[in-house]
Specification:
alpha+beta; 7-stranded mixed beta sheet; 15 helices; 19 strands; globular
């Protein structure tokens, strides 16, 4: 039986839900200033930086909340071309993003941090909509216990009622959740099935195997958001492409590496060759740094081809590496700007996680953090080089038993010390915020297309858009 417990009001303790060094960190003044700007001033600055952008379209983008994906995070790479054209490149969107435990407090007197901000502005308004069933509130999770317990404790405080914290690991399968007329039920500590009127979902590993795409139970976020791109890189790529076509006359573009989706295994070597012999291959449905192969040599390509793959289709993308060994795509070559050189002269690849929420009034930033790779970027590639050590930034490490640990020593905070090493400025944060909202909105628009007018999941339409029998067989309908 999956583990669960009731979290009572008054149980929140900040030291249990933040990394130790985060509690003692001071938010960098520039980041704090950005978080206090508000959407109107951010829109004005963005339009000043991008005169090609339609100012009204930018304001509408920021003020129009998503319907399915009300909470998300984007992983961004700060990149440039050999001619110095800088870009914030969207690598992927995460529909259950981590970040709260890594974010210094914006208001030092409020130790609840972004936990309360997200729940108050994104989750609680969902509970007021019509048609919400009767039942308890819950936090559902399969990893990241530090943050999920924080959400449960804050939710209990905000609602002044016990919140059921239910562990739903992928190994349990669909039996760990009951569904009756769209209402989810999970087992309480005594084994009794408890119906839920609302749940904060941090179920990240193939969540569609345990939870249906759409439910009457109010979920932040519904699994439909995962299938439409929040945990499905194949449909995310399609969502970005379609959104860029729709917004082409507004001067708003989602910047992504050149991407090929629905690629069969036997077609991967040819596409890697077309990209100059280097590229990235991804299992479209994995997360936490799993199912990603950076290919910079014949040996790394052979290792990928020999791996026992769960699914039948892949994503192939242009690789953003160093200036001498990045992929060459239709827009040329992009490479990591990376961190400011350390005392040894080393530059590390790094990405920026930008977490946002959507309230009835529009989008708002929640938290940010950065991650660096294990090894510094090499100017050239030698035979046998492990490119993942130079390019892989995710902190999660999967254990032999299927559980996850983390490598917090590579975490870079938005504090006075780490932020300076990233080489980012206010305009970079502005770009990152807009890129994140554009990407999340694109996925949300595609998700809504996968519902009928009565709110029923269009599984056949989904299968036609994402023709992968292995994935479609896993979805709980």
């Amino acid at each position: 039986m999956p583990q669960s417990e009731w979290i009572q009001p008054g149980s929140y303790q900040a030291e249990a839900h933040f990394y130790p060094r985060v509690l003692n960190a001071q938010l960098h003044p520039l980041v704090k200033h950005f978080l206090g700007l508000g959407n109107e001033r951010i829109a004005q600055r963005y339009c000043h930086l991008h005169p090609e952008a339609d100012a009204q379209a930018v304001r509408e983008l920021l003020a129009t909340p998503t319907r399915i994906l009300r909470w998300a995070g984007a992983d961004l790479i700060h990149a440039t071309t050999p001619k110095g054209v800088r870009r914030n490149v969207v690598i992927e969107v995460n529909s259950s993003p981590s970040g709260q435990k890594s974010m210094p407090l914006q208001v030092e007197e409020d130790e609840r941090g972004g936990y309360a901000k997200l729940l108050e502005r994104s989750f609680l308004p969902m509970l007021k909509r019509r048609g919400i069933p009767k039942g308890a509130l819950a936090v559902l999770w399969d990893k990241n216990e530090m943050e999920t317990r924080g959400y449960a404790a804050i939710l209990a405080d905000l609602t002044q009622e016990p919140v059921l914290l239910a562990h739903l690991p992928a190994s349990e399968g669909p039996e760990c959740v009951q569904v009756d007329d769209g209402v989810l039920s999970v087992q309480d500590p005594d084994g009794a099935w408890t119906p839920l009127r609302g749940a904060f979902r941090y179920v990240t590993q193939r969540p569609w195997t345990r939870l249906p795409p759409i439910t009457r139970t109010a979920l932040l976020n519904p699994v439909l958001g995962c299938l439409a791109g929040g945990r499905n890189k194949a449909l995310a790529a399609q969502a970005y492409h379609r959104a860029n076509l729709r917004r082409s006359n507004q001067g708003l573009v989602i910047r992504v590496p050149e991407t090929f989706r629905n690629v069969h295994l036997h077609s991967v070597p040819g596409l890697i060759a077309d990209l100059g012999g280097v590229g990235v291959v991804k299992d479209p449905y994995s997360n936490a740094g799993q199912g990603v192969w950076t290919v910079t040599s014949p040996q790394e390509l052979e290792a990928f081809m020999a791996f026992p793959h769960r699914y039948q289709r892949f994503i192939v993308q242009a690789l953003v590496g160093n200036s001498e060994w990045s992929s060459t795509g239709r827009e040329g070559r992009f490479y990591h700007l990376g961190t400011v050189p350390n005392r040894k002269g080393e530059i590390f690849a790094a990405d920026l996680r930008f977490m946002i929420g959507a309230s009835p009034e529009g989008f708002f930033p929640v938290s940010l953090y950065a991650r660096r790779a294990r090894a510094p970027l090499a100017p050239t590639l030698d035979q046998g080089t492990d490119s993942w050590d130079m390019l892989g930034t995710n902190l999660s490490v999967k254990q032999a038993d299927g559980s996850f640990t983390t490598e917090p020593e590579r975490l870079m905070l938005m504090d006075r010390r780490d932020f300076n090493a990233l080489g980012l400025g206010l305009d970079d944060l502005t770009e990152g915020y807009i890129q994140t909202i554009l990407a999340v909105t694109a996925i949300d628009e595609l998700a809504r297309e996968l519902l009928t007018q009565k709110g029923v999941f269009r599984n056949r339409h989904f299968a036609s858009m994402n023709p992968d029998p292995a994935l479609n067989a896993e979805i709980r309908l």
